[in-house]
Specification:
mainly alpha, Endonuclease Iii, domain 2, Endonuclease III, domain 1, 62% helix, 0% strand
Amino acid sequence: MGVSIPEIMAKKSTRKTRKPAAKTRTKTRKGKAAKLKPPRKPAAAGAEAGHGAPRPWTNAQIAEAFRRFQAANPDPKGELAHINPFTLLVAVVLSAQATDAGVNKATPALFAAADTPAKMVALGEDKVRDLIKTIGLYRTKAKNVVALSRILVAQHGGQVPRSREALEALPGVGRKTANVVLNIAFGEPTIAVDTHIFRVGNRTGLATGKTPFEVETKLQQVVPAQYKRHAHHWLILHGRYTCVARKPLCEKCIIADLCQWPGKSVL
């Protein structure tokens, strides 16, 4: 059965009209996708305004903050139980990724059995492991404690070195641990940046940084010399009990009026 000329022309006309329609739909989809992006910018800007980076403190504000910390707690102490520089070193090594309270529950028996590097080596890794098994990562920590004790006996006469380089060369000892030992055992004005100090520095604007080392460097630059000896303790205690992670207790904060955090609940 043949096809008439009008029918052929009608089919060609239909095919020609389909292509522009497809292009129109493609352009419409692209146009709509492009228009969805701009509304996100105000939302992001709003979030940044509410929780953005705080303004830096003035020198006068920093000095006032530490004056208040000193007035409230003139002689702050670390919360890790220890007997001497060696047991302090061991306690700090054990505290990595663990709480001070948890470490303090395990160390009395350990330090009663071995309060010197020579005694720790004699105690041995197996017994050390059994005594600290309530602490996270206890197997690795037991190995490090015995290994560092052996090095202290062989290379340092059984004494904890007062050099950062020598401390950081010991198994399980990093910059933070070295700073704690230098500060508490030997009175050096070091600042050990843990999670609490890192949070306080960045949240308040006192010392911002993307890494603990950046925060430590800024604190060393801005904290007045007369406060550096105890600055690390004041900031840790402030972060542990007041400027806590989830819901900071701004209403009881002694530096709330100086704090530059946009999200603080006290003006």
